[in-house]
Protein 1
Amino acid sequence: MSRQPAQGTPVPGAMDFQRQTLKTPGAVSSLCWSGDALVDPVGGLVRYHLDGATFDPHVRYSYRFDRSVMSPDGRYSVLYESLGTTGLLLDGTEVVRQLTRDFYHADTHDYPVALHTLPSGRTLLAHCPESYCVLELEDAATGERLTKRDNLPTDIFHSRLQFSPDGRHLASAGWIWHPVDAASVFDVPRALEAPASLDSAALMDGVENGLFLTSVAFGAKDTLVFARIEESRDDATFFLGTYSLTERKVLAEVTLEEPAGPLMVVDAEHVVDFFEHPKLVSRSTGRVVQRWEDLDTGRALGSMRGHLPTPPPLALDPAHRRFAVGTASGIEVVTLAAQ
């Protein structure tokens, strides 16, 4: 692994980083972090270690899956068609069961699915198996529905689900009619005790009720970092903010100098934005301080991307300040140095 300078002339606030190329037989189909290895579940759970070693279990799943998520303990994974209705839950290489989601506008926004392993060893599966607006938590191993209820849900298209690192919260960054982007965050222990809390009409207090948030990512402690858009007839302005889940209010917000898509929180001073290519962005100024223009990470701003080309595989590991991008011939891994 060799350290490489940032492309172009970085402004103050840029960070040292290491960049590594992992050669693969062809383009990977999906990417998930599992310890210090990158796994391609869609491509047959091939494992690419950062030391160059490769393990191929020689299994293949014959369907047009194009994305995947993996549980933190590496046991379970879900293969899915990101703009389709079909998913597949695996325990290792073994099929546990098929998954599905509502067909309604499924071809417009990312399949909502996430996995989290509790300290007890139970793995939670979050998805929308029956209706686009009904979020469910299940026991991954048994399929037991843990959030059964019969109340009316909020009319929101859930998408891009993610658990907080400690599993306390579950975020959804989807959309509602007309359409506009919308994000919501749920308390997981409360949802397991009172499933109706998953259908609250109040999306997020203190930040436009979650409306116009194009992307969210969990930060330190109880914070959520978000990208927000304000559109006028002639222009659009993007903002980067920090929201306290405990205080239910915005702690800080700055104007971004460029549009922002998917986010990864690096530290209190930086996030990486993955709209078009990875960019290191200052959380205090909204300025891009570093970029990797040779890495294509797609043109999706929010969850509605049915009109866009499928983005390359992308795997984020905020705990270790690194991300990986699939290319035509390998995997590019960028690790940001601690300040």
Protein 2
Amino acid sequence: MKTYLSKLMAVALMGIFAAQLPAFADDDDDLATSFGTRYSVGIDKKIIKGLHVDFEEELRLDGISALDKSYTTIGVSWKVLPFLKIGAGYSAIGARTADDLNPGSMVWDWRHRGTFDVTGTVKAGAWKFSLRERFQATYRTKTVNEWQQPKTAMVLKSRLKASYDFYRLGLEPYAFVEHRLLMNGAEWDSRSTHIYEYANSTFIGHSDVYTNRIRAQVGLEWDIDGQHAVEIYSLYDRITEKEIDAKKTKPVLKMPVATTERNFIAIGIGYTFSF
């Protein structure tokens, strides 16, 4: 009876969490909401016990048909202790962005991302709880206006995850919440919304630290036979951005610095082959 109740609780928890994702996005009708889909294929190679190398190719679409971004990632993870894992990775990211030289056209903006993370895990029966801290640095090859954004964005992600393992079925539903902290945003000495005050602002540097995304995600991982695994999921992002309109030739604001928020919802599916 106790096992049955635990399973029922797990399913109920994930179901309630999934049902709330659209509600989160609808809590402010003034915010813009966009939708996307994601598809990935990965390979996980076990080198020795606790040491794995993985490769993944992911396509992110704007809606269901327009390619928005591609992620090619290679990583390594090492289970240092039964409850502690460290990892590092590299991603080549292609993003479709507006062409500054040809208005109305799109070009590929290539970015390079390095990550390092530490994950602690606690198990309680079939339940598993984990906290992952990930530092990432993303370098943009495209020329950017550094009075508005850094050439290399430094981000700290903190993810709290809960999952339940239906080990006999190979099913593991999960839910997590992730906080993303931008650590080196462009900073100006004025945040005034008065139209005549922004002209006297000066650029301080890339020292603005603020939360620019909160993510909630629910999904289901299915380990089919120990080699083939499938994951389906739905996510909701609440994104906060600092809108800075500054001249590219020298650090002079043209408009006051403004903070904007928007919603993003996506569904995705992924496949992994392990050996």
Protein 3
Amino acid sequence: MRHELNLWVAGGDLRQAELAQLLAADGHTVHTWALEGHGSLTGVHMEEDTAGAELADCVILPLPSEEEGGLLHAPLSHRPRQLAELLAPLRPGQLVCAGMAGPVLTALAAERGLVLQDYFAREELAVANAVPTAEGAIQIALEELPITLHGARVLVIGFGRIGKALARRLAGLGARVSVAARKWSDLAWAESCGYCGEQTDHLAGWLCGYDLVVNTVPAPVLGLTELSDLKPGCLVIDLASKPGGAGVAKVRAVFPAAPVPSLPDWGRS
């Protein structure tokens, strides 16, 4: 039985670099592409082009896998990388694993007869990913807020995987947590957990008392009207996938000097 695999790890951030090293440590032959900005990786072949990718047992793309314009998500690359450049040498039937596969990647894979698996569609991974995302948001809040989270009034917009993980941890730190959701069922669950409930579609006029607002909804839920309700010094953290729920430009229009931290490269749910 064959155990050693030929794997290509393409694009991504430090998570992809760590994955490449872990796979190499397990005895696999690992090639990386569009990760040259990380520097050297132990036991890994760092490739300058895609020659040889057609021999891969699996090509592993990052989370998220693509950016606008058909680009591979590759923040550690020295130049923009087109998805088509990576997929061009692959043969029909080759396995490509990607996180949050977008329309360009999906179309290119179908055109070339590739087997595309979106690993972020696995519920167990999405749930596990919510934990570090929630912890990262709390770290930002602790660094940016001039007050303690204990006793702070916090609004979490959205009660999906990340919203649930975040609200629970904030409440555990003593924050007074409210949850905004669109579905009545989500509001019922939030209130059953001891959180106050707000309707996402009716936030205008109800935001002036919050010290921290964290959005997890990938839709424009915080417009200029809603942002104008926030008191000076309120911290806004947008965790949503593009286009996000607030947007730096809108926050800057209301509070020119306000910090708008986010976790732009993390997977969302």
Protein 4
Amino acid sequence: MSFTVIPAIDLRGGRVVRLKQGDYDQQTTYAFDARELARSYAQGGATWLHLVDLDGARDGGLDNLAVIEAIARDGMHIQAGGGVRSEQDVQRLFDAGVSRVVLGSLAIREPDLVARWLAHYGAERFTLALDTQQRDGAWTLPSAGWTATESRTLDELAPWYAARGARHLLCTDIERDGMLAGFNLALYGYLAELVPALATQASGGVRSVDDIRAARDAGAKGVILGRALLEGRFTLAEALAC
């Protein structure tokens, strides 16, 4: 399986933003137009784009669907999520041109429902976002834009989904998200052993191309690049060269 570099655009009120550790009160807003930024990534050689509707992730609803649809019309493969609460939401994203729907809170709270969708639509149409935070030695799974605490753990759900045919797993170490502290390589090495059938996307903390290579060597099959690209710490071309 090839290794994929995936630029990310987080949307809030239609604008390009980044949060620190998922905190909605620690937002950086960038001057980029979301669609133009996506076009620049496509022109730079990226084949996939990761879009997050932050308004939807916290409150439910596809608040930034019009922006997502506009970007999809330009032809990139898109995985998008945030605010998916029903099959109708899934269908609306597919109809908007999204290649893979990212399921976060719902994947944690209603795994049986999500497993039915995997069987019905095909596992390639979904990326499961099991974003995690270590608490008392366990990898916990906060939901609702990381604002709510859930009882299930990464160790329970990742193998459960792998056994039901899931193919794509996005896993962010929340403590590192937006912090430019490097990927949690131990986490991705652990997942490569725990669920080798899942193509894991590393997210949270990348600061250099060396981090990208290290994530690949740790067993990740892709990386999500947000703040580091937005702030020019390295170029997309340099990332793709990894």
